[in-house]
Amino acid sequence: MDMLSTLFSQRSRKIGLLVPDVIISEKSQDTLKITEHPIELGAEIADHAYKRPAEVMMEVGFSSGGSLLDFWDTAKVGIRAGLSAQEIYQQILALQASRQPFDVITGKRKYQNMLILAIEVTTAKHTEIVLMAILTLRELNITQTQKARITAVEPQNMREGNTNRGMSNTGLKTPKTVDNRSLLDRGLGFLNGN
Predict the structure, then answer these.
(1) Which has more confidence, 178 or 94?
(2) Cα torsion through 122, 127, 128, 134, rounded to 10
(3) How far apart are CA 15 and CA 117, in angstroms?
(4) Contact 119, 34 (CB under 8 A)
(5) Do residues 135 and 15 touch, judged by C-beta distance below 8 A?
(6) Which parts of the chain are beta strand (E)?
(7) Residue 129, number of CB atoms within 10 A of its CB
């Protein structure tokens, strides 16, 4: 890489609107869930599979905005190079708390509809003024529902159209009373005038 492309290269990794200053590592996982059903004799049967949400673990670093001058601390008077580590950490916490899906761009691909599953921050003496974090992000599967219009199957398209009739609107029905008496009881009732 030549010097000009190094100076003018843009950072391509993004977590929502946050752009880390350094990426230490990225680990992604795409898995498939294969369902298994036990049977009486023999091995379990696997007859269905579905894709699990993608997961990305990013170890990132954000530099703390400090003084613009080496010989005098301009941050004390409100003039600084960027956000402090605490402010960036609060932005990450707010992004997680919002529960609003966002895009994540890694070195290998772009992920859509992601949420921050976990935030791990460790502060040590050599990372006191910067924010070093491990972010675990998971894809959110979003579905859209819609009303389905059910249509009846025509009798000619059924295997036994004469016995399996299609649905149709035949209007209002009036129930009839049924005489559940046996023939003998009916005959005796007829003879007795009932």
Answers:
(1) 94
(2) -30
(3) 13
(4) no
(5) yes
(6) 14-15, 22-29, 32-37, 45-51, 55-62, 102-105, 110-121, 131-139
(7) 11
Q: CA–CA separation, 118 vs 154, rounded Å?
A: 54
- pLDDT for position 48: 86
Decide if pLDDT at 98 tops 60: yes
Single-letter amino acid, residue 23: I
Number of H helices, E strands in the chain: 3, 8
What pLDDT, on a 0 to 100 scale, did the predictor assign at position 29? 94
Q: Quote the pTM value.
A: 0.61
Structure token digits, residue 24:
């230490």
Percent of the chain with pLDDT over 70: 74
pLDDT score for 76: 67
Domains belonging to the chain, first-starting first, are: 3-139 (2.40.30.200)
The distance in angstroms from the start CA to the end CA of the chain is 109
pLDDT at 41: 75
Give me the pLDDT at residue 22, please. Answer: 87
Of 75, 35, 70, 76, nearest to 52 (Cα)? 35
